[in-house]
From TrEMBL:
Protein's UniProt name: SPFH/Band 7/PHB domain protein
GO CC terms in record: plasma membrane; side of membrane
Pfam family membership, one: Band_7
Family recorded in the similarity comment: Belongs to the band 7/mec-2 family.
Sequence ranges of Pro residues compositional bias: 257-276
Gene3D superfamilies the record matches: 6.10.250.2090, Band 7 domain
Region of interest (Disordered), residue spans: 254-326
Annotated Band domain residues: 23-181
Alphabetical list of InterPro entries matching this protein: Band-7_stomatin-like, Band_7, Band_7/SPFH_dom_sf, Stomatin_HflK_fam
Length: 326
């Protein structure tokens, strides 16, 4: 009878011990730390990773994740210092450095860090200009990190880094920036073209000077141009031809012969045949034959009036002839 009671008591104690161990045993993972509260009071010792024991119904173990947490910050809309409305979203990387402070000093450190990041982001937008948000993000990231990290240190949280992901602009501002960028590109293109033309003109001037000093270089350049143009099809090539060569060919075709004799100074030039007025004047002044019939004074008329009507009448005007009907 005594043996049975002892066995029963042993089994009962074993069951109670098993229940006690199961309720007191805790396992803390490698990336976690355990904060123990005994009767509501924080124990100074933080439990590390592995197997640990607490007093059942007296101690309470709260685990804290020590990994780096990635928290996206919702897009915040604000007005920059140069009066441009933008929407900016960011991401915050942080981790817990003091598990006890993260549990005791703040109710929910994740929510607290999120709210602090949003307010800091709006503050950064109001203090910055649009060009800084678009081009100098590294400086803004550092300033935003300092603004969030200052109060987070008291919560046992360390901000690893903060990055601005995107900056959204209004459509009107996008079009204005596009026009500005296009104008800037055109200005730089014109400057580059002007510099290129200046350098080309200098090189051409140097080449012209060299060719002027060396005439054979100009001839070689002409031959190169002729070869380049002749390589193309359906092209008409016009080449300058020296006049001296044409004269030489003309003399060669005529062959050797008597040279024309120049007129002597004593010889008179050949006589030109008399003109019609001269012939008429000579005919009117010739003598009348003796056997010609005599005419009365009334019948006498100037010889010029007895000429046919189509014979030109002498005009005292030496500049020309006058024609008429009698």
């Amino acid at each position: 009878m005594m043996v049975e009671e002892l066995v029963t008591a042993g089994v009962s104690l074993a069951c109670v011990g098993g229940v006690y161990v199961m309720s007191a045993a805790r396992v803390v993972k490698q990336y976690e730390r355990g904060v123990v509260f005994r009767l509501g009071r924080l124990r100074s010792k933080v439990r590390g990773p592995g197997f640990t024991m607490i007093v059942p119904f007296v101690d309470r173990l709260q685990k804290v994740n020590m990994q780096i947490v990635t928290m996206p910050v919702p897009a915040q809309e604000g007005i920059t210092r140069d009066n441009v409305t933008v929407r900016v979203d960011a991401v915050v990387y942080f981790k817990v450095t003091s598990p006890a402070d993260a549990v005791v000093r703040v109710e929910d450190y994740r929510f607290a860090v999120s709210q602090m990041a949003q307010t800091s982001l709006r503050s950064i937008i109001g203090k910055s200009e649009l060009d800084d948000l678009l081009s100098d993000r590294e400086k803004l990231n550092q300033g935003l990190e300092l603004m969030i990290d200052s109060p987070a240190v008291e919560w046992g949280v360390s901000i690893d880094r903060v990055e601005i992901k995107d900056v959204s602009l209004p459509e009107t501002m996008k079009r204005s920036m596009a026009r500005q960028a296009e104008a800037d590109r055109e200005r730089r293109a014109r400057v580059i073209n002007a510099d290129a033309e200046l350098q080309a003109s200098k090189k051409l001037a140097e080449a012209a000077q060299e060719m002027a000093e060396t005439p054979s270089a100009l001839q070689l350049r002409l031959l190169q141009t002729v070869v380049a143009v002749a390589a193309e099809k359906n092209s008409t090539l016009v080449l300058p031809f020296p006049v001296e060569l044409l004269r030489f060919l003309e003399r060669a075709q005529q062959g050797p012969g008597p040279q024309p004799v120049a007129p002597q100074p004593s010889q008179s030039p050949p006589r030109q045949p008399p003109s019609v007025p001269q012939r008429l004047s000579e005919w009117a002044q010739r003598p009348v034959p003796e056997n010609a019939p005599q005419s009365s004074a009334d019948d006498r008329q100037p010889v010029q009036e007895q000429l046919p009507s189509r014979v030109p009448r002498l005009d005292p005007d030496p500049e020309g002839l006058s024609f008429g009907q009698d």
